[in-house]
Amino acid sequence: MTQKPVIFIDGEAGTTGLEIRERLSALPVTLFSIDPARRKDPVARKDAMAAADLVVLCLPDDASREAVDMAATLGDATPRLLDASTAFRTDPTWVYGFPELAKGQDRAIASALRVSNPGCYPTGAIALLRPLIDAGVLDARYPVCINAVSGYTGGGRSMIEAHEREGGPAFELYGLSLEHKHVPEIHQHAGLARRPVFVPSVGHFARGMIVSIPLHLDDLQGHITGSDLHTILQDHYAGQEHVRVMPHEPKLSAEALAGSDRMELRVHATAQTRQALLSARLDNLGKGASGAALQNISLMLSLNDA
Question: How far apart are CA 165 and CA 168, in angstroms?
Fold first, then answer.
């Protein structure tokens, strides 16, 4: 009987860590845990890393960097790493964990020693933009503006507690310095040559997300129609289990995919004014976090082949 791969989640007490741990219990893996009282003990953490085939880092950025340095001291016992923070998403020595990004990305993840799990907002934005840039219809220097709304669970424990205790604001824009930490990730992995404007927001609902990007069709390459954009996206994601290109709908609810690992992409366009809106709908904790992590873990450990 083949031995099950061992996974250690460093930071399993956080929102993403808890979800990943719960979902891994149904997979053919062995979860290595340390005493909660020692979860910040460097000796206990290092021993857990040495015992694991794969370490999933669910930590703040600086703590993730420290954990990676710790793992690097293990020599031949150094495990493979999947990092859920922002710390390494634009690092060229790490593989970006969006399997549907481009042809061969899933194979790159499967063979990588270090994989960075994508952010929730970037997952939607990159999914919409990258195929259009690769197809040559959206110039990399197009002035891209991205609007997005997320459920409050994306804000971590303090925001969750505030919304569930106090009711929270119905809707709130944030990141209005235009320096949100996800912008470099979108900029790089969408293939943009010009920094996008990104305006995130949070609503008083637990899970769900919509990312939307307006376009002027006359500013694209060639006499492109909304139907053409739909076809480009459909061709790019053909056969993908987790990303689906859907028909236009007149209204979208951000909560519709809560609890799902799927992402839905749409093109909403009008021929009269030659305008279009691209939309991505996903669960911020599903395809935007733990669902993506499960997808990457399965690739890295060949669980789908077991």
Answer: 8
